[in-house]
Amino acid sequence: MKMENEIFRKIFWWSSSSSGSDSDSGSASGSGTNRKCCRPMEKIVPTTTGVLVIFLLFFVAGICLSSGWIDSSIFSGISYQKPLRCTTGNQIQTCSRDYPAANINRPSNLICPSYFKWIHEDLKTWKETGITKEMVEKAKKTANFRLVILNGKVYVEKYRPSFQTRDKFTLWGILQLLRLYPGKLPDLELMFNCDDTPRGRGPKEGPPALFRYCADQGSKEIVFPDWSFWGWVETNIKPWSQLLEEIVEGNKRTKWKDRVPFAYWRGNPDVGRKDLMACRGSNEKEWNTHLYVQDWGKETRTGFKQSNLAEQCTHRYKIYIEGWAWSVSEKYILACDSMTLFLMPRYYDFFTRGMVPLQHYWPIIRDNNQCASLKFAVEWGNNHTDLAQKIANTSSNFIREELKMDYVYDYMFHVLNEYSKLLRFKPTVPPGAVELCSETMACPATGVMRKFMEDSMVKSPSGSSPCNIPPPYDPSTLEEFIKKKSNLTRQVQMWQHESQNINKTQ
Ligand SMILES: *[C@@H]1O[C@H](CO)[C@@H](O)[C@H](O)[C@H]1NC(C)=O
Ligand SMILES: *[C@@H]1O[C@H](CO)[C@@H](O)[C@H](O)[C@H]1NC(C)=O
Ligand SMILES: *[C@@H]1O[C@H](CO)[C@@H](O)[C@H](O)[C@H]1NC(C)=O
Q: How far apart are CA 384 and CA 390, in angstroms?
């Protein structure tokens, strides 16, 4: 126990000093911020003169508009409250062109969370050679679409339909990024693949440049936030900013100590997770687990009553296990204020690499001893409730602070910005591409899709620039960081072996 405390002191000393600089201190104006969405706007202090001037402006504008002197679109820059401007009748839907590029230039004094450092690692492949047109074209055979940003406009050339609405909501997210930082994104051209599993290593003669949601050690792909941050229509999972708030609220309802002292998992075992079901055992005590199969067919019919993620934070321990590749469930599980039992994944998404075993989660090696490892983890946590709570707290703080929507957008901004710096050609709009904007996507949409798009729409430009991207790891620091992570995982295995040996000798 003494040794454990020593290890934790080291872990959390390190964490508190590193996350301090990452925390959000840029906007002193906590009040008056739009909590539902994005970054706080510049604080507007209403003064009598200000109010008068605004009143006069509207008055004059009203006269001009009603008499048809000027086109109403000039004023749409200040009418962001009206989220979507859809045409009516059989008029063709147009894109609004009213992003005021000015007044977003206040530099940010925030340093981005440390996981942003991995942007440099992902792009390292092309650091010397740059990215040529050929490298982009080579990625075409597996891409779902090509995205071109030119003078702040978005063009898309579609190649293959994606699974469900992944491609739509990914594109929607990119459009919202442009609404948040109008005029700030550089011209670029990229290929995007919406599948689960990476293809593996690219050919030797310069790997193709491809964006996707996850990668593994062998693949040279550029990871990008997945569609679920703007909503997953088919499973009724709401946009992240809204759902995160609900989970945080829900967490307050049951204190950690009052939660069910077992490990919880609910999901679909048929996507490469059948091994986990063996840990159900004949009763809950056998492996200390509560495992449930999610029947999506039934959930769809009954209106997703069983699958409300904000109500799934009922246990002290929650299991994360990847499917065919990374799983979008990761952020919902880590946000729960439960200690996450993290079956060490092969694939990573954009934020996973910033997390550390025993600090953000309890590492579990995925092997044929994993049921015993789960059982041990739960027993350990119930014996060391303070430390288990600390891990729970650290992971949910990480998700709440460092994975809030502001930073998801900032990550997208920086990965696109750094990528564009490597391009060795001038992006052009291919003949088969169409222009895309929020109106052309959302206005024809109906039902849940329309709702999620409206709910996740960026209502106004950011008040400041994106956070500042941290410099790359120097190679020795990176090596130490990786070693430290594997050391801590080994440490947990050692505790388990020791405990089993003691039990044997008794
Ligand atoms: C938990 O505590 C019990 C009782 O002190 C002990 O028998 C058991 O080995 C402990 N287990 C772990 C994993 O710490
Ligand atoms: C959890 O973290 C919050 C925010 O950092 C802190 O205020 C709280 O005291 C922590 N709780 C525990 C049990 O560590
Ligand atoms: C990892 O463990 C080894 C041996 O147990 C130790 O020598 C090394 O300093 C540790 N490295 C880190 C980064 O903690």
A: 10
